[in-house]
Amino acid sequence: MIRFEHVTKRYRGTSKPALSDVDFEVQRGEFVFLVGASGSGKSSCLRLILREDNPSDGRVVVLGRDLRTLSTRKVPYFRRHIGSVFQDFRLLPNKTVFQNVAFTLQVIGSSRAFIQQAVPEVLALVGLDGKQKRLPHELSGGEQQRVAIARALVNRPQILLADEPTGNLDPATSVDIMQLLARINAGGTTVVMATHEAGFVDQMKRRVIELRGGVMVRDDRHGGYGDTSAIPSLTPQVEKGAAATAALTAVLELQRQIASAPVQPVPVLTEPATDAGTPASTPARPAASAATDVPAARQTPPQAPAQAPAPVPAEPAPLTRPIAIDAPEVDLGELGLGDIDLGKLGVADRLDERQDDEVGPTS
Ligand code: ADP
Ligand code: MG
């Protein structure tokens, strides 16, 4: 899914490489911590995965694409398969929670009807239902990071990159965010999280890749790697409400299906064939049909070897039950694309063509 082959990165005007001969492979479905002190090269690694930068030597392969050969024109399509969150959240300050998340979909040309369904679902998934109309400054830091995570996930990426996502949060809130990331990973999304905070890493008992001065000094697959017992409870919390429970269960189930499904040629970003003018109060689609909106993962053939099956929530809701979530009326026109630097938000660039989005075969 992500492969670094003897990657060295030298920044212009610096003598010592930021990364030296870094070599690792992340399989589909893994949760990997990238740890190391400040300046050890963690963010440089994540930028290379996103193709925001190129290696000086060596090769980076992501989702089956050798990023050296990926044309600039195709980079935005490639990035749609990767969600990113950052330490500083990078929310649009004068947009509501709903608008911040909707923005990602609007940028890639999703229909209003699809946005009205997908945004409440992902907000429920991250535990933010009921806060759709708040502005970022009306939220706690942890809630703001949840918005950023929702925004990263709303396009159902195969990979989630998190660069010090708990760096601005207090310890208790950081644990909440870690639990959320673990839950997302349990649903099949590959997660790579950079952090200099070793505390979480030990608790999570997941794979740890450690950098020191740009050199990989540890790739610890042992000491609990693959042991999912350390993952915090996967059962949706009752206080999040029935809608959130149903949405989370549906998404987890869906992601499991995708993770184990044979490859099927499904067009990317299939959307419900509903009129854009559908009233916002239209009930969300049944959970089972949500699969048609998440085709991206299916384009990538299953990786060998398959990961252990994700833990199942204790009491999954029947998949045939509709997810009843009220979508607020929102004027998407207010989302103005203006002068916003999409790259800084972790949002793919606006594009006119939709079909040119092939990724794979994965290696
Ligand atoms: P980390 O995320 O682990 O703190 P970074 O990847 O940001 O580490 O940085 C690794 C090294 O590369 C540091 O020495 C940093 O100063 C240097 N570096 C990062 N980005 C640039 C850049 N754009 N130009 C020059 N040096 C850089
Ligand atoms: Mg960094």
TrEMBL record:
Gene expressing this chain: ftsE
Family: Belongs to the ABC transporter superfamily.
Subcellular location: Cell membrane
Composition skew (Acidic residues), residue ranges: 354-363
Pro residues biased stretches: 302-316
Location, primary (coarse class): membrane
Role noted for this protein: Part of the ABC transporter FtsEX involved in cellular division. Has ATPase activity.
Membrane topology label: Peripheral membrane protein
InterPro entries membership: AAA+_ATPase (IPR003593), ABC_transporter-like_ATP-bd (IPR003439), ABC_transporter-like_CS (IPR017871), ABC_transpr_LolD-like (IPR015854), Cell_div_FtsE (IPR005286), P-loop_NTPase (IPR027417)
Coiled-coil spans in chain: none
GO terms of biological process kind: cell division
Annotated region described as Disordered, given as residue ranges: 269-325, 343-363
Pfam families listed in its UniProt record: ABC_tran
Superkingdom of the organism of origin: Bacteria
SUPFAM superfamilies in the record: P-loop containing nucleoside triphosphate hydrolases
Molecular function, one GO term: ATP hydrolysis activity
Family matches, as Gene3D superfamilies: P-loop containing nucleotide triphosphate hydrolases
Protein name: Cell division ATP-binding protein FtsE
Biased composition (Low complexity): 276-301
Keyword Calcium assigned: no
Domain ABC transporter: 2-238
One cellular component term from this protein's GO annotations in UniProt: plasma membrane
The protein's assembly and partners: Homodimer. Forms a membrane-associated complex with FtsX.
Keywords: ATP-binding, Cell cycle, Cell division, Cell membrane, Membrane, Nucleotide-binding
